[in-house]
């Protein structure tokens, strides 16, 4: 089916945010969005809904946020609103399908990616009849709702894991049971990162990130945060994977962001395929004194999160160093109690993995529906 394509500027207004990063400090009734896409409170609003918000620089370039209420925005974000002759939900899903790929082929910057208005000038959108737009959006909305329900089930199971931890070990902040306390560095066997393999110059020579499937997956924060290792992921060749010997990922490790959202902690699942660590992350394996799953659950408690975030430095660009990670306090019960904890988690973890597998299947289905929809084959 052949559809007319139009330039983005012909169906909506493209603007930039108007406030600096400190605007939200005074609070207020309106959400204020920065490039982090996590709203804080603003006393004013400049934009009406519905709108699409796109980070203009930083780690979140390529991500998309859809806003359905009046809001304020940081000056380094881009705002799409005042839509014309197009169904908003149709456009929303098309952005999920195409925007990341468009940005990947037209970015600026090296250490920090950023966008310019020309990224938008070259972006085109299909324009089937309005009734067809609404039909496609309705189908994708139902498939998207199934994904969201599965994500909610995963979140509830994560809450249950937290509850089991507190039942067994008490509040780590007060340590009412008097467990031993050690520095994280005392129980770390391996603490490595991408740059452990060589200088920027050497890495640039040997490693190229690919957008099409290849030998190994290069796991990034976005993949871990969404638990989606299929859509929008990066790949590397076998030669690059073999070169990156110090940052191979085998699964069941702790991964910590070291820049941007520094201090965020993830547990790497088993993917049964070659995986390499992305940039700006630490990979951790523990010694025999500490079970990796226990340490992960500890770091995900409010206390553990507070302790590791207290080691983050920087006003604008947040960072955490290896030594700072090693200095985090860890409550360490005997291995017998750690094993008992893991045994109690087994059933919950199986449910979690079941839900995550189904979520991955739904992600695959959704990707297929998107492709068919925007080719006119749905």
How would you sum up this structure, described in words?
- It is a single chain.
- With 378 residues, this protein is an alpha+beta fold.
- The protein has helices spanning 88-104, 117-121, 130-169, 200-206, 221-226, 238-243, 292-299, 302-309, 322-326, 335-374; strands spanning 5-7, 13-16, 30-33, 40-42, 51-55, 65-67, 72-73, 77-81, 124-126, 180-183, 188-193, 216-219, 234-236, 248-249, 254-257, 265-267, 275-277, 281-286, 329-332.
- The chain has 3 domains: 5-127, Adenine-n6-DNA-methyltransferase TaqI, Chain A, domain 2 (Alpha-Beta Complex), CATH 3.90.220; 130-157 and 334-378; 180-332, Alpha-Beta Complex (Adenine-n6-DNA-methyltransferase TaqI, Chain A, domain 2), CATH 3.90.220.20.
- α3 packs antiparallel against α10.
- It is globular and about 65 Å long.
- The termini are close together.
- Mean pLDDT is 90; it is low at 108-112.
Walk across the major sheet and give the strand order: 2-8-5-6
Fraction of residues in H or I helices: 25-40%
Biggest β-sheet, characterized?
Answer: 4 strands, antiparallel
Percentage of residues in strands: 15-25%
CATH superfamily of the largest domain: DNA methylase specificity domains
Helix and strand sequence: EEEEEEEEHHEHEEHEHEHEEEEEHHHEH
How many beta-strand segments? 19
On the 0 to 100 scale, the average pLDDT is 90
Shape: globular
**Unreliable stretches covering 5 or more consecutive residues:** 108-112
- What is the total number of structural domains? 3
The assigned structural class equals alpha+beta
Question: Any idea of the CATH topology of the largest domain?
Answer: Adenine-n6-DNA-methyltransferase TaqI, Chain A, domain 2
How far apart the termini lie comes to 10 Å
CATH arch. level architecture of the largest domain: Alpha-Beta Complex
Which CATH top level class of the largest domain fits?
Alpha Beta
Number of distinct helices: 10
Task: Please tell me how large the radius of gyration is.
Answer: 22 Å
